[in-house]
Amino acid sequence: MVVLRKTSLLVFFLFLLLLLESTFEQQTSSLDEKSALLLLRSSLGLRSRDWPVKGNPCLNWNGIKCDQNGRVTKINISGFRRTRIGNQNPEFSVGSLVNLTRLASFNASRFYLPGPIPALFGSSLLTLEVLDLSSCSITGTIPESLTRLSHLKVLDLSKNAINGDIPLSLTSLQNLSILDLSSNSVFGSIPANIGALSKLQRLNLSRNTLTSSIPPSLGDLSVLIDLDLSFNGMSGSVPSDLKGLRNLQTLVIAGNRLSGSLPPDLFSLLSKLQIIDFRGSGFIGALPSRLWSLPELKFLDISGNHFSDMLPNTTVSFDSTVSMLNISGNMFYGNLTLLLTRFQVVDLSENYFEGKVPDFVPTRASLSNNCLQGPEKQRKLSDCTLFYSKKGLTFNNFGQHEEKKSSKTSWLSHTKIVILAAVGGSILLMLILIVLPITVSFCVRRRNRSSTSNHPRGRHNGVGPLPPDETLPSRGGVSINFGSLGSSFTYQQLLNATKEFSDSNLIKKGQSGDLFKGVLENGVQIVVKRISLESTKNNEAYLTELDFFSRFAHPRIIPFVGKSLESATHKFLVYKYMLNRDLPSSLFYKSNSLVDNGLRSLDWITRLKIALGVAEGLAYLHHDCSPSVVHRYEKPFLLLFFYFQDTISSSLILSLPMFTKGYSSK
Ligand SMILES: *[C@@H]1O[C@H](CO)[C@@H](O)[C@H](O)[C@H]1NC(C)=O
Ligand SMILES: *[C@@H]1O[C@H](CO)[C@@H](O)[C@H](O)[C@H]1NC(C)=O
Ligand SMILES: *[C@@H]1O[C@H](CO)[C@@H](O)[C@H](O)[C@H]1NC(C)=O
Ligand SMILES: *[C@@H]1O[C@H](CO)[C@@H](O)[C@H](O)[C@H]1NC(C)=O
Ligand SMILES: *[C@@H]1O[C@H](CO)[C@@H](O)[C@H](O)[C@H]1NC(C)=O
Ligand SMILES: *[C@@H]1O[C@H](CO)[C@@H](O)[C@H](O)[C@H]1NC(C)=O
Ligand SMILES: *[C@@H]1O[C@H](CO)[C@@H](O)[C@H](O)[C@H]1NC(C)=O
Ligand SMILES: *[C@@H]1O[C@H](CO)[C@@H](O)[C@H](O)[C@H]1NC(C)=O
């Protein structure tokens, strides 16, 4: 009896134990699944702290989620660390996952899995919906087998070392909503039928080596929210089909080799756009006007393209407290407009904006390297003038009508120079006052001059008034025949003289024309001014200059040698070449002991002599000749002086746009 009782008690306990055990097993993973997980733990070298042997995977293992039947559905080993032993021979070995037949999500992001993606992803694991293998140091190609994971919604392979093409069959993953292959070495092209991924919400292919063009079918992705194709080698233009991306909020295609202009209707339907990044993409032309009225726009970076456009003068009613505009490094021009009130941070640097900076422009705006009036570090006057004249517009000359000031602004970059200029300027002024009364009136006219090269100027030394015998006798106010003024050269002669206007002969790009050095057949050194009638707004300027030279000559004014007027599009004026450099470069030349090609910074004696020579020239123009030359010029005062270093410059070349308004009788 006793034995029986004892036995039945034992059986009872055993039964109880079994019962307990089985209910316990019901709540936890199946034995198969637990052993599969333990195998995984050892093949990946996971720490028992994360996955303790005695624990219940569904209840107290980190990163494991099970369904109601105790079957593992999610594994998240993201951010786990390997044991020391696991670190010794790390591999992408996850074979035991095949026994987790309900697995829907595998996230190993930032876990070290060196090696190619195993084929079991696709041959098994067909229940996977989420596969995140980002930052896992994966190598090899994207296996075709992956494209059989037909339930996949999220595929993130970003930040690995994956190479090869994007398999065309990837587009069979019809439920895919996130596809991120960014920061790998994927090459080839984007599958042409990418538009078949009709549920795609995020597509990130950035930072690969994809080539070819943007496939038009991308525009079929009507639920796409984020598109990032940046920093690849893609070429071609932006297909206007992209206007079909009606739900797009982020559009990043920066850093490609795209070309052409943006389709005018690109943004017509993209009313949800918040972030647009097109920087450094090679685009040209104007911006679609709709861009500026996108209601949600927070970030617009189109820097480093070749866009050339004016900003519309519009405001927007909607609130945009955090917003950034970067259009630096383009060719935007015109005035700053009310549009800028929309943005908090603006970078407008390296464009051609002109005019004043209105109060509404954010205080932290970057405005350098424009043609603006007021801010520091603007472009050179000549850059601005050239740019605007190419557009058929007149540059406002930094809003200044005072020629001297504006022509100096571009040179004055160092305080030293400012001081020098101030001192030089006052000396000049004093000298004009001193020289004036004693200057003999030598208003001269040319007579029977075929060339001035034999004139005795340039030999005159010293700084005083010139001896009257060196001036030319004047002639009455007879109308001028330019044909007899100086020599007439053929175009071919000037081509030969200037090595076909080669860059090495270019002295200076001027406002009224470019100056080239040249040598005539007889060895006479000349300066040729090439005037393009197409780019010069005032076509008559060269006539004014010819008129001037036909009336006046003075030892302080560059001798006129001749002209070539045969071409309909270009006119050429020829002057005698003066040794050394033009005055501005010499005055502001800074001695550099390392690269000093023989030229010295000017000493004070020479500077004084130059000032005197200049004063003489000015005094002549203003007071001595009849009719006298009066400064009423709209264009900057661009006297281009040449000097002799040993003797005082006896000549100054007048770059004569200043004479467009020329001289008037007094
Ligand atoms: C994955 O695991 C890491 C580390 O345990 C945790 O920080 C993270 O929140 C988990 N992520 C998800 C999506 O569960
Ligand atoms: C999967 O489970 C079966 C049965 O328990 C076992 O025989 C097999 O070895 C397991 N496979 C892997 C790869 O762990
Ligand atoms: C994977 O885990 C990381 C880290 O917790 C998380 O940021 C990421 O969103 C997860 N991936 C997916 C697809 O949920
Ligand atoms: C795609 O998702 C839908 C809805 O979530 C689902 O009904 C369908 O079965 C899924 N298709 C595949 C192939 O997983
Ligand atoms: C695309 O991925 C890169 C990193 O690989 C990331 O920097 C970028 O922000 C992602 N783009 C979007 C739009 O999320
Ligand atoms: C604007 O873009 C340029 C070139 O891409 C960059 O150097 C500059 O820092 C950007 N400006 C701002 C304010 O981010
Ligand atoms: C900028 O404004 C000035 C004065 O308002 C005007 O003369 C000039 O034409 C404007 N520039 C352009 C390119 O419209
Ligand atoms: C823009 O329009 C405002 C009035 O709406 C006007 O005062 C301003 O001068 C205009 N600015 C430019 C650059 O045309």
UniProtKB/TrEMBL annotation:
Q: InterPro entries attached here?
A: Kinase-like_dom_sf, Leu-rich_rpt_typical-subtyp, LRR_dom_sf, LRR_N_plant-typ, LRR_R13L4/SHOC2-like, Plant_LRR-RLKs, Prot_kinase_dom, Ser-Thr/Tyr_kinase_cat_dom
SUPFAM superfamilies linked? L domain-like, Protein kinase-like (PK-like)
Keywords associated with the record: ATP-binding, Glycoprotein, Leucine-rich repeat, Membrane, Nucleotide-binding, Repeat, Signal, Transmembrane, Transmembrane helix
Which residue intervals make up region (Disordered)? Answer: 449-471
Query: Is tRNA processing a UniProt keyword of this protein?
Result: no
Which spans are transmembrane here?
417-444, 637-659
Molecular function terms from GO: ATP binding; protein serine/threonine kinase activity
Its membrane topology: Single-pass membrane protein
Enumerate the subcellular locations listed in this protein's record, separating them with semicolons. Membrane
What are the GO cellular component annotations?
membrane
Q: State whether keyword Ligase applies.
A: no
Q: Where is the Protein kinase domain?
A: 501-666
Record-linked Pfam families: LRR_14 (PF23598), LRRNT_2 (PF08263), PK_Tyr_Ser-Thr (PF07714)
Q: What is its main location?
A: membrane
Taxonomically, which superkingdom?
A: Eukaryota
Q: Which residues does UniProt assign to the signal peptide? A: 1-25
- What this protein is called in its record is Protein kinase domain-containing protein
